[in-house]
Design brief:
With 338 residues, this protein is of the alpha/beta class. Helices cover 30% and strands 14% of the residues. This is Hexosyltransferase.
Length: 338
């Protein structure tokens, strides 16, 4: 093995996630009928009405998934040069390294970085049934209206464990009606009571929160958010009030999802289930493989305990992990050697 490759190989297994290297992705171009946006050098390029705004979080643990998600968005977009990415990182993250990684793999990408004060957010977080749900970055979706420029009126929020196989502009154009703040696929066959504790349901002043609302479960990993309506209604404060109550009374067990259900369930715009084929990570406790939901597919979501990159590395993939693999940009020492 050549000496530089051997050195990289040793660093790879010594440093783990911190030494991940990613290949450069292909450049994708707009179709001829796509509207043009300002050049990258324009300070106002985050404010174009013709851009599709996408918000994601970035951290070392899920960076491999984020890179695959970005590639999938660009590859299936009709106007990939009009997709504007807004990346949220924590104040404790190695922002320089993350920015360098994105710029190297996607040198033509339109992107912006925003810093979430993880110390302030962590003070509002209660422990949940999975430690991975307790990190402050998991709550970044609560603060998009505060972090992104005021001129960004609508954003598509995506988790890092997804791949798109359809044009994100279709999702971004979801009608929100006259007053809905966000849109997401609903799953009304799910047992809604499961998401809250007996303490919540036995207290009428709390359970009556859902009075007159057809409250259904929705997955917050894929949402279209009207940031203007969010700001006008001060929904960040509403969510934080429930989080503060949770610290005192323990009214739910599952991370950042229940406050969203408390504030929005029953009042969201519908999105076809094809845009969030979720649960592909498997059972939260035993890691069992899952099948696709019936119907067409526009977005695959490996929510749950198991992540496709971890299962592929362990040589124990679920069948659907093969659909994620083509978007993996990780540069392995074996690939370098070849």
């Amino acid at each position: 093995m050549p000496q530089p490759i051997l050195l990289f190989f040793l660093l790879w297994f010594t440093n783990g996630v911190t030494s991940q290297q990613f290949r450069e992705a292909p450049q994708f171009y707009n179709s001829p009928d796509c509207p043009s946006l300002p050049d990258h050098g324009d300070d106002n390029n985050a404010c174009s009405d013709h851009a599709v705004h996408v918000a994601m979080t970035l951290d070392g643990a899920y960076l491999r998934g984020s890179m695959a998600a970005i590639l999938s968005v660009l590859q299936h977009s009709t106007c990939p040069q009009n997709v504007d990415f807004h990346f949220v990182v924590t104040s404790s993250a190695d922002t320089t390294r993350l920015r360098h990684t994105i710029a190297n793999s996607f040198p033509y990408l339109r992107f912006h970085f925003y810093c979430l004060d993880d110390v302030a957010v962590s003070g509002l977080i209660s422990t949940s049934i999975r430690a991975a749900l307790d990190c402050s970055l998991n709550y970044a979706r609560n603060y998009l209206a505060n972090l992104l420029p005021l001129c960004v009126r609508r954003v598509v929020y995506l988790d890092s464990d997804i791949v798109l196989v359809d044009d994100i502009a279709k999702l971004a154009a979801t009608p929100l009606g006259d007053d809905s703040v966000l849109a997401a696929p609903e799953y009304c066959n799910a047992n809604f009571t499961y998401y809250f504790t007996p303490t919540f349901w036995s207290n009428p002043s709390l359970s009556l929160t859902f009075e007159g609302r057809k409250a259904c479960y929705f997955n917050t990993g894929v949402m279209v958010i009207d940031l203007e309506r969010w700001r006008a209604g001060d929904y960040t404060t509403r969510i934080e009030e429930w989080m503060e109550l949770q610290k005192r009374m323990r009214i739910y067990e599952l991370g950042s999802l229940p406050p969203f259900l408390l504030v929005f369930a029953g009042n969201i715009a519908p999105v076809d289930h094809r845009w969030n084929q979720h649960g592909l990570g498997g059972d939260n406790f035993r890691g069992l493989c899952r099948d696709l939901h019936p119907g067409p597919v526009s977005l695959l979501h490996w929510s749950g305990k198991g992540k496709p990159w971890a299962r592929l590395d362990a040589n124990r993939p679920c069948p659907l992990d093969a659909l994620w693999a083509p978007y993996d940009l990780l540069q392995t020492p074996f690939a370098l050697d070849s």
